[in-house]
Amino acid sequence: MIEGRSLVGGRAEGVALVLDEPLSFWGGVHAETGKIIDRHHPQLGASVADVVLVVGDGRGSSSGSSVIAELIRIGRAPAAIVVGYPDQILVLGAIVAGELYPERPCPIVQLSEQQLSSIRTGDRVIVEGNGVWVRGGGERQL
Amino acid sequence: MSWSRLARPTGLYRRPYAVTVQLSAADEAMLDGARGPAAALAMRIITGVAEAIDAPGLRDVAGAHIDGCLYNGQASLDFAERLVRLEAHVAVPTTLNVSSLDLLHPDLYRGEHREPATRLVEAYRSMGCEPTWTCAPYQLAVRPALGEHVAWAESNAIVFANSVLGARTERYGDFIDICAAVTGRVPDVGLHRDDNRLAGIVFGVEGVSDSLRTADVFFPVLGYLIGRRAGRLVPAIVGLEMASEDQLKALGAAAAASGSVGLFHAVGITPEAPDGGAVGISESMPRVEVTMSDLRSARDALSTRRDLPLGAVSLGTPHYSLSELRHLADLVGDCRVASGLAAYVSTSRAILAEAASTGVDTRLQEAGFTLLVDTCTYVTPIMERVEGVVMTDSAKWAYYAPGNLGVEVAFGSTEDVVASALAGRPIWDEGVWRD
After folding, report:
1. DSSP letter string, B341-384
2. Is B100 at the interface with chain A, CB within 8 A?
3. Does A117 participate in catalysis according to the annotation?
4. Distance between CA B151 and CA B178 in Å, rounded?
């Protein structure tokens, strides 16, 4: 288990999507599909729905919180978010969604940069409270 | 801030909203419902965020600017209407960002969400917010003073308030903006605190030609470049001799779109940076020498296509000021936009009223421009289906519109955009971009 710090509580699991660059949810993720639409982002076209999204840092528009809340409402949000920085906009979207739609938690855990780097896209990841379990399966360089 | 300090072992199941933040007696009372259920909900969200971001406590704000009034789906309406049902009312003077509609010219909206977007507008109005509907609240008659703490949302407004006005706001987002307005309180972190306002990276522009450095188009392109490179650090620009508020607005809007910039200093120009020492610039600080070639690359990155016919033009992101509208009218002169070409200029209803008193609005309308207020062309369905490329002088528009609207975009100076609009084909003047 990797011991992190829970920013928004809950339990979830999914396949990791490690973002290569910071992502603004508003203008960067389609609020109806969960697909990355930022034409400047290297992972344009990838879906954040149901994945454990691994984000080094947030970026851009301050409307990101309502896009996250909307994705949670329609069930197209990440299963959980693992961050390297306690981004206020991400946390806020998940906290407000927790008030509005408590049946659909989107836990957020903060890890150190070093801990974050141990998660690869494709890994099966479980997030619970302060803990992150990485089950492997993703691409690894030998 | 070290990682080890952040990684607090607090057990596997953390109680939601466990408050370790130092709250005042009034904050505690609000949390317990002393000021009604809406203020309690707002305070619960603020303390939840404060806990997550490790805030030591909360502080007062003198005003708020709300971004949550743009319809981003049912969740934004669910939250606003819950607050209204709980009888929320703002506790500090509060302005509103753009909505999804042009409330003065409702027929310009072509989308499917008119009904919920209208309900959202009504919800925020009923909580006592001023119906300003602008992303440029710093162009209103009353604006925050140097050193005044506010809770502003909308990334371009945030960076302008911090950098150009020297007011103090964190990068607030949808939801916490109205919570701050209802409670008058925010987490006391980030750009509210002196230490976090010091420069962390220097961008030197001495190597840029004088003709580019004094051109309007330099500023959004420099802002885009700074946003891409500054990361979480506060950028300080050295080597700028002068800059207008409109130019600094374009710079900040671009930097806040391409990066997370909430504050920049232009040494010798912005109020907290009379000299480098005042913002902590030192020899050991990371430094980027901006070159002509860097700027040409940044400019090119703002266009998705330069080889298509012209489909439309869009100006006024952030909302044009009166001086920008006048400049546009002067550039157009007695000419007209090419027949059949859609040409939009976004501004606020307050600026439009000022423009009307001098006839600038009529001059632009007669030349073939559609003046849009209360919203913006890249956040809501206003534009007709575009065949070809949309040309803009806004780095922010260029950054977001391809994703939001699915259009191809070509960035240019205001002069380029006007020349293109009149000719009906994209035109660029390379003059200022040469070494």
Report:
1. -EEEEEE-HHHHHHHHHHTHHHHHHHTTPEEEESS-TTTSS-SP
2. no
3. no
4. 9
* Active-site choice (A6, A24, A47, A61): A61
3-class secondary structure, B153: strand
Q: What's the pLDDT tens digit per position in B142-177?
A: 999 999 999 999 999 999 999 999 999 999 989 999
Cis ω before B402 (30° cut-off from 0) = no
User: Which residues touch B378 (CB under 8 Å, ≥6 apart)?
Assistant: B314, B317, B396, B397, B400, B401, B404, B405
- How far out from the chain centre does Cα B224 lie? 13
Q: How far is B287 from chain A (nearest CA, A)?
A: 22
Closest listed residue to residue A82, CA positions, set A129, A35, A36: A129
Q: What is the DSSP letter of B22?
A: B
CA dist B54 and B51 (Å) reads 5
Question: What angle in degrees, to the nearest 10, is found between the helix axes of B37-52 and B176-183?
Answer: 120
Which of left, alpha, beta for B96 (phi over 0: left; psi -120 to 50: alpha)?
A: beta
How many H helices and E strands in chain A? 3, 8
* H or E stretch at B336: none
pLDDT digits (tens, 9 = 90+) for B174-196: 999 999 999 999 999 999 999 99
Please state the pTM of the whole predicted model: 0.91
Non-local (6+) Cβ contacts of A50 within 8 A are A14, A76, A78, A79
A81: nearest Cα among A127, A139, A26, A137: A127
ipTM of this complex prediction, to 2 decimal places: 0.91
Q: What are phi and psi of B104, to 5 degrees?
A: -85, -25
